[in-house]
User: Fold this.
Amino acid sequence: MRIKDVYAGGRFGLSIEVFPPKTAEGDDSLRQTLAEMVPFRPAFVSCTYGAGGSTSKRTVEWCREIQEKFKTSATAHFTCVGSTREQLTEWLHYAWAEGLRNIMALRGDAPAGQASFQAIEGGLRYANELVSLIRESFPEMGIGVAGYPEKHPEAPNLDVDFENLVRKVRNGADAIFTQLFFDNDSFFRFRDRLNRAHINVPLIPGIMPITEFARIQRITAMCGAGIPADLTSRLEAVKEDKQAQHEIGVEFAIAQCRELIDQGVNGIHFYILNKSQAGREILNGLGFSCPSSQ
Ligand SMILES: Cc1cc2nc3c(=O)[nH]c(=O)nc-3n(C[C@H](O)[C@H](O)[C@H](O)COP(=O)(O)OP(=O)(O)OC[C@H]3O[C@@H](n4cnc5c(N)ncnc54)[C@H](O)[C@@H]3O)c2cc1C
Assistant:
């Protein structure tokens, strides 16, 4: 199903995000995770595109497997990093020929060793240019883009970042998927702002269950998402106890998602980091039905 059809008519769409593993064991474990998550009937599973294009083919191969073996629509993430316009177009033809109809169109981050993102000669500078390229060459492709309720780390302020997001939508994005966040108020302010600007594409909150405090601290330090002080204190109090961290993370995510759903979000995009346990516990806690576990 294409992204714009997923949320048509106000329908709710659950989506989950995975990444292409680097080892055969990782592949087996991801297959197991998908087998456990697909019964919750996500509208699609998205697969990330490795930094610097390192998983360019693997992303498409995994998307094909998700569609063929798991009978679930897939969305391939795609970045501008390290590719010329021609190479990006070539990859898009490849993805289309492999049956992909949804792309998460991203700029990507600077490759390791580079202080800031620099477009290569003949390449694209921003995700909005990638959205235009996709729309021009593949008008039927579903396109998702990234949004940052707490601001992209490189943007000078929320206003500038917001204008850049609007550009991606005007160039043809069908939906916005947010960076992970833990403070729903920042999401609601972001949504209000989009409404005031008459940007009506679905805004889908990105939720990452906390399963390990140290790991989430590393991730939030990179992406700029804040962890509320009371949640930090609770996690700090159990910093030697991973099981307790997991339980707090799941309980927090259930409450966070419940509030988002009550406030009418069009869907939830779960960053599950290729593991199913927290995702299953959260979806069960929210009352999503999973026929195979009944
Ligand atoms: C849902 C989601 C999925 C992701 N998946 C991946 C993935 O698979 N692989 C990966 O490597 N990374 C992924 N990322 C991370 C993403 O690549 C980084 O956050 C990256 O730094 C920015 O990408 P973007 O598409 O938001 O870029 P852009 O929208 O291009 O924004 C990047 C920065 O440039 C500014 N900007 C944008 N347009 C303009 C303009 N026209 N003029 C001036 N400034 C501008 C913005 O304000 C922002 O500060 C994902 C992020 C999210 C939220």
User: Anything to note?
Assistant: The longest helix spans residues 242-262. The pocket of flavin-adenine dinucleotide is lined by residues 48-49, 51, 77, 79, 104, 106-109, 126-128, 146, 152, 154-155, 160-161, 164, 167-168, 177, 179, 206 (CB under 6 Å).
